What we know:
- This protein is of the alpha/beta class.
- The protein has two domains: 19-125 and 262-334, 3-Layer(aba) Sandwich (D-Maltodextrin-Binding Protein, domain 2); 128-258, Periplasmic binding protein-like II (D-Maltodextrin-Binding Protein, domain 2).
- The protein is 44% helix and 17% strand.
- The protein contains 14 helices and eleven strands.
- The chain has helices at residues 3-25, 42-53, 75-83, 98-105, 141-146, 159-171, 184-192, 204-210, 212-216, 247-257, 274-287, 291-299, 309-319, 324-334; strands spanning 31-35, 64-68, 91-94, 118-124, 128-133, 149-152, 175-178, 198-203, 220-226, 263-268, 307-308.
- A six-stranded mixed beta sheet has the order 2-1-3-10-4-11, with helices on both faces.
- The radius of gyration is 22 Å and the shape is globular.
Amino acid sequence: MSxxxxxxAAALAALCAAAPALAEExxxxxxxxxxxxxxxxxxxxxxxxxxxxxxxxxxGKPAVIVQNMPGAGGIRAANYLADSAPRDxxxxxxxxxxxxIEPLIGARNPGYDMSKFNWIxxxxxxxxxxxxxxxxxxxxxxxxxxxxMIVAGTGxxxxxxxxxxxxxxxxxxxxxxxxxxxxxxxxxxxMENGEAHGRCSFALSAIKITRPEWLRDKxxxxxxQLALEKSPELPDVPLVFDYVTNTSDRQLLELMVAxxxxxxxxxxxxxxxxxxxxxxxxxxxxxxxxxxxxADAKKMLLDVDPTTGEETQKIIAKLYQTPPDVVxxxxxxxxxx
Length: 337
């Protein structure tokens, strides 16, 4: 080999050797996942699971910190991500479905547009449930039509608060919302101590993580499912669409349940550099293929059916293109009188 070729080969080898170190230096800050809910809830537990495995799949192996940011049914965390979170990929948030559609259907502009967030990926596909604690006498939609059913809510913008209003309109149920509970854990306590008959909606994944015995020991009755299709685990529980008789009502409910396709999603703020976002997304994908992560998820009874960040981005962008007449109907229903 000639001297120039030897020199070129040596230079290439040096560059390849340096590449991993340079890649590691591109992410030298801890990542903080801001949980839009309280400790012990489904999104909190998923965040803590991810935090134990994510680091090894990202160049630089950044520490992953989980902190809770409850408030206004998730709107507080969404506004933080939109307004003041660092734009370098070091700040994330995880949400339930409610805050994702709040800018579309809420009575006021909450100050953010989630189609502008940079979505890292979603944990699973989910199924919302309208549930009552066993022994309360509410077992079917007809029971909730016949008499008042008290349901616990976590604040404006959360699914716990929006669904009862819409369902009362579409299904003629008599849900009475008692809102202001700080998070999932508090709504669970309200049901267990008799302050509330139930909750509507409650994600199946969250119940399996936080109170698996509710399903195992039949401590709750499931009135119906809030999703576009039934959960394979609940083939005998009716879908909300089974009770819908016209196109307008169906479109309204489709808007409400659209986020179930990207359940337990993680987002970064607008403005994250494309190369950094790519790194975050590929780290997410690799984590969800990690045998240790999957084993931990199985222990938690967490159904893992991830959606990539790119696909999550497309689904949420499409949601924000919902026909204006459907959006306006939802707003009218959910605007306090």
